[in-house]
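Much of the work behind modern protein science is quiet bookkeeping, done one molecule at a time. The protein below has been through that process, and both of its lines are reproduced in full.


***
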Amino acid sequence: MRRKTASQEHISEKATEEQKARKKLAEMNLLDDFLFSTMAAYPEIGERFVKILLKIIFGRDFRHLSVTAQKVYYGADTNLHGARLDVYLEPEIEENSDERVTVYNMEPDQGGDAADKRELPRRMRFYHAKIAVKSLNAGADYEELKNVVIIMIMPYDPFGLKRMVYTVKSMCVEAPEMPYEDGASTLFLYTKGTEGVPNEMLKQLLYYMEHTTDENAINEELLKIQEMVRAVKKDPEVTAGYMLRHLRMMEQLNRIRKEGRAEGKAEGKAEGKAEGKAEGELYNKISLICKKLKKGKGLEQIAEELEEEIPVIELIYNKAKTFAPDYDPEAVFEQIRKDI
């Protein structure tokens, strides 16, 4: 039997990765950043999708919305941190309307480790600041500043009180009952929350978002969303986009690993397997990420400090988190090798 050529092996590996990507997309739920953002940006579906979400969350209809998926607010210069908002929603209010414009940012968050929870309030503070500074034109009165509502949907309890809804607003510590309306609020929606459940519709929605299947689309609104999900997942362009994203991540990790091995051998450090890996760029990245995780740092902070692209860092970061609290770089390295 003839051995496969390098080209044939590459084609075979690529086909395997494509199959993995298709399977992941088919099984993906709405808490996944890719599917959620794709749904919101999808022509003829995005606006209907987010209107249903907002209707269930707030219990009222939203007529006019301008939907922007993956809106990025850059820092004032390259040394300042920017913010990427998954789904940015801005109602189109008529000029003579008395209603104050409210900007909504909605996104799923699948973090949940100690570092993610610890940095969450400050991350929300940063999001509010970035949106607010962009929503007031130069010379405008502060009265024209738009309200901002940030909605985080998460499969973990951000504050440990088992609540389905946590609504956070500014208040006076000495007199909590005193009105203090600065127009900023944050909703944390915990999919498994059992306390303070406002209504059955929201409970069903949050469960469905974590378990996005036909069986869990148990009311009229969820059936509409599920029909949209099926349409988006079946779209060849969406499939191709996700496969390309997946393959790029795998290829980048493979390239890093191969370059790392070559570097280790070139420096004469390949006497033992562990030493060879330690000299590799991939192993070094894993080691750095593990060290930063031990210090309680979150994904965005690590990516910024390492000056790396989020997708590659996120993949390693998520793998490393499964080895908490030790964050053993050797174990993480071996697991990633198996995956690629």
Summary: DSSP finds twelve helices and six strands in the chain. Confidence is low (pLDDT under 50) at residues 72-86, 268-275.
